[in-house]
Design goal:
Blueprint (H helix, E strand, L loop, with lengths): L9 H5 L2 H14 L3 H11 L7 E5 L5 H8 L4 E6 L2 H14 L5 E5 L2 H4 L6 E7 L8 H9 L2 E10 L3 H16 L11 H10 L3 E7 L3 E7 L4
Parallel strand pairs: 1-2, 1-4, 2-3, 4-5
Antiparallel strand pairs: 5-7, 6-7
Helix pairs in contact: 2-5, 3-4, 7-9
The structure holds S-adenosylmethionine.
The site of S-adenosylmethionine has 21 residues, from strand 2 and helix 6.
């Protein structure tokens, strides 16, 4: 999905206000769970006092909210969904750190030149929403000064079958949004080419978490 003009993009239609409100309720009830929680813990390991965060496709913002509460100084969240950004901003106000977050609405790949490098970069369940994985992963990796973490579907028959079924459902409902099963080898090769070294990986039935470090940092 190489879009998008904020307002009526496939992302706005897929990740709308109803979707965002439901997700926010879950986050307020349980906090970050599963691989999202593991992603936050791994990015924060050893202390992140004073560090900067770039979250791409933050949704309600679980990762940047939790990293700010763990000591990070500032965060930028770039999300193509207006509804999600509105909810993430409201949650930042509720948690008392809105003055330390900059919210940017739009496609990260087209906006990447305007985004400053950050110590910690996170993409939680975002790579599977975007056709041009090489641009999304490559451009975001180039902005990671210290650590880079992502959650994306496992490279398995189950993941590929899920993608086909979900896209069928989206097509039947006339949605322009699509999901993508990118190959793990391709993602890993791009991150390695950007000088990042894997420090942690975890899997569930469908998803995988991988956290990388820049050795020179
Ligand atoms: C499945 S949601 C995940 C939200 C959140 N990270 C989570 O795990 O709950 C995917 C999010 O990524 C955003 N997104 C996908 N591709 C993007 C891109 N190229 N630039 C900015 N945001 C993007 C969507 O708008 C949406 O908010």
């Amino acid at each position: 999905m190489d879009c998008c003009t904020p307002g009526d993009s496939p992302f706005d239609r897929q990740f709308d206000a109803r979707h965002a409100a439901r997700h926010l309720r879950a986050y307020r009830e349980k906090g970050a769970v599963g691989l999202t929680r593991a992603l936050v813990e791994s990015l924060a390991e050893g202390g992140i006092g004073g560090q900067s965060v770039l979250e791409i496709g933050g949704g309600v913002g679980a990762v940047h909210h939790d990293l700010l509460r763990s000591g990070a100084a500032t965060a930028v969240d770039v999300d193509a969904s207006r509804a999600y950004v509105a909810v993430a901003r409201g949650e930042a106000e509720r948690q008392g750190h809105a003055d330390r977050v900059r919210y940017v609405i739009g496609d990260f790949v087209t906006l990447a030149d305007e985004i400053e490098p950050a110590d910690l970069v996170a993409l939680d369940r975002v790579v599977c929403c975007y056709r041009d994985m090489a641009a999304l992963v490559g451009r975001s990796a180039s902005l990671a000064r210290r650590r880079y973490g992502l959650v994306y579907p496992r490279d398995s028959w189950l993941g590929r079958a899920g993608t086909v079924l979900l896209n069928l459902e989206l097509w039947l409902s006339r949605s322009p949004f699509r999901v993508y099963a990118h190959r793990t080898d391709d993602v890993e090769a791009i991150l390695a080419a950007h000088g990042l070294v894997k420090r942690l990986s975890r899997t569930t039935l469908v998803w995988q978490l991988a956290v990388y470090e820049r050795p020179s940092a």
